[in-house]
Amino acid sequence: MIKNLLNKIIRKKNINCLLITPPLLEPRTPYIAMPILAGQLKVYENEFKVKNLDLNIKFFRKILTKNYLLQTKKVLDEKAVKYNIQEAEFIINNIENAVQTYSETINRGSNFHNSEKIINSALKFISLKYKNFNLDTLNNFENCFTDFNEDYQYIKEKTTNKEDNIFLEFFEEIINEEIKKGNYDLIAITLPFIGNLIPALTLSGLLKKMTKSHIVIGGNFIQTNDILNNPEILDLYCDSILIGDGEESIVQLAESVKNRSIDQNINGIIYKNKQNKIIKTDAKPLKNINSLAPMSLDGINLNEYLCKRPTFYFIISKGCYWGKCTFCSLGPNFLIHPEYI
């Protein structure tokens, strides 16, 4: 009887969910993957509380400041790193005005491009602190880690190396000052592109150590075989991984967290059961897009983005009838179900 009562109390508890977009992505507009999932959870407002946290724009807002550049200059001087002193002083004194102009300029004229040039120079200056890191543009993040390879041991070392990982200090500060206070039961992190791999796993690894939340990773760049071949990922970086589209899976996972028991009824999930055995379930065919709930921007401040009028991307279709193109991130396992054609 007591056990049944406790189960009822547990089931009545609202599950607090945080959906995080990590660096490195376009800083002029929100990446909509997490707002889409937030919208699906928000349908069940009596069961789940949900909030977005865009650490991508917060990261750029943190480093593109005079104070951060002065701190960078101090570190470079202490390490005796050579740089152009006059250029550095110009960047430091003009960065905040450049960011404002870049963000508020609608027409991409000379003022916009001059501001962009200062911002890119600031990013390059910041990168001098790190041996194998080169962030020198707001438009391409694939090759920021100049020694990058997809070997798991490399990733494991890179995500914990303070000497060569710009994100560690930033994430630790955010976790201590903001995330811990939220007492989140479920924290989801998207990993959509190769440029997000190190930032996303750096963040998830810290969250795994510093919180008691269930940490889940998902996104287009997740490769099932990488997880199965390196099961330690489920010990160091997360508690579960979602594969395929997450609109249904995130709701199922949140319900499982609510019941304190992850099970095999969740679509497209990889996790370790109580016997420490890896469980992988199949992702279901893509859901009818017309049945999805609208996205939710709760937690997102549009005034933070480096654009006066952010452009939103809307998904108007899902999947492909054939699904055979080798370059496609969806691949043959994510065909449209015949009933939706």
How would you characterize the overall build of this protein?
A 7-stranded mixed beta sheet has the order 2-1-3-4-5-6-7, sandwiched between helices. It is globular. Helix 4 (66-78) runs antiparallel to helix 5 and helix 8 packs across helix 9. The protein has helices at residues 2-12, 33-42, 55-63, 66-78, 85-104, 110-127, 152-158, 167-179, 197-210, 224-229, 233-236, 247-259, and strands spanning 15-21, 48-54, 186-190, 214-218, 240-242, 269-272, 278-280. The chain has a domain at 2-54 and 151-281: Rossmann fold, CATH 3.40.50. Mean pLDDT is 88; it is low at 1-6 and 331-341. By secondary structure, the protein is an alpha/beta fold.
Provide a quick synopsis of the model.
The chain is α/β, with parallel strands linked by helices and 341 residues long. The chain is 40% helix and 10% strand. The longest helix is centred in the first third of the chain and has 20 residues, at 85-104.
